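User: For documentation purposes, I need each entry recorded in a consistent format: the amino acid sequence on its own, followed directly by the corresponding structure tokens. There are two entries in this batch. Please keep commentary to a minimum and don't merge the entries.

Assistant: Recorded as requested. Entry 1:
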Amino acid sequence: MPRLSELIAALDALWPPERAEGWDAVGTVCGDPDTEVDRVLFAVDPVHEIADEALELGAQLIVTHHPLYLRGTTTVAADTFKGRVVHTLIKHGIALHVAHTNADTADPGVSDALAGALDLRVTRPLVPDPTDPRGRRGLGRICELDHPETLAAFAARAAARLPATAQGIRTAGDPEALVRTVAVSGGSGDSLFDAVRAAGVDAFLTADLRHHPVSEAVQQSPLGLVDAAHWATEWPWCEQAAAQLDALSDRHGWDLRVHVSKQVTDPWTTHHSSGAPN
């Protein structure tokens, strides 16, 4: 059974913390390096529901994509929701480790998992990491479909293959336009419009698209836009990351039991509409 310090070293080799953005907060949030670990839980969000799930599973380590304290804090008091998470974890000997933007740009990374969930063939990064001589790391991915399909059909593919959320899938652009190439980026992606346009793809699938960038984008080009829930675009990474840790466990003879949380921790819970245009 490996110690936590051995697992963290392995996770840092997969997603080196020095590759995270300067504003990010990755790495180990809490945990005793000498604790023995035989069960690990992967999730997107470090919320109390996930801490409770780890406790029920008997896991000694949670790995999340989103940081618990992204902007820092002056307190971990238990009367705050983040403080309650920390108190629960420490009380029950559960460590928390975060891989965020260092997992976004990894090879394979968050957008590779998103492309895989949609059965897309990755050809290259959308925004390549200039430090990668192989040209495989970077933000987002450029992908190809095996067969062209309409934007409407591609959106239906995303709705069927990504986890269901209250938001569902929104599209902008001609629903009958043919899609052959797609840019994908897990999480918030409207800062990437310039790179997407430069790539010359037919569609862009991401999350958290805002009104003004979308309005400008559809006026500038026939680019089709597919907007999914933030959580849904990043959840496939949990399965990919769990498989990577499973492979390391087999290689090292650790006999780890690795789980992926199926809890929907997307903060939006309901959707109401009087109808949408056809």
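Entry 2:
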Amino acid sequence: MAQIAVFAALIAAMGLPGAITVGFSGVPITVQTLGVILAGAVLGARKGTAAVLVFLALTMIGLPLLSGGRTGLTALAGPSAGYLVGWIPATLFIGLLTTRILPKYPTALGLLINAIGGLFVIYLVGTLGLLLRTDIGVWAAIGTNGAFIPGDLVKVVVATVVAKGVHRAYPGLAGG
């Protein structure tokens, strides 16, 4: 339970630097996605997803924990709704596959898992949300993800390096 709370707090703390909105979609670039990737990569599917759900629940009751001081209800009413919802399956995906590569946590596989979960899964759900929340077309919605790729790739690398170190120091953390 403490690990779940710590990672929910970590995701909240990663919202403190704020957000940068790029392009016309209204979806901000934040550091919080790093916390989401780390939750799955370090805690595994069950505890990592629980941490993300606790964080999202706190934002839904009105706590301004999302970057820029937004609440979950505000974010769900806007164009970033799908990206926020995408954190849940992304963490689950990362956590499930991470536990399959433990205890060794090969760096290349960790990078691949974190990239698919942290980019593809979130972008897929986020793009669907954009299509539902805005009047932009499919290709424009897909194209908005391009601005996020460089920063998200850095987050994937950072999360992989951190997860590898944590799993080396604390084997079995992602289980149970």
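Summary note for entry 2:
The chain has a mean pLDDT of 90.
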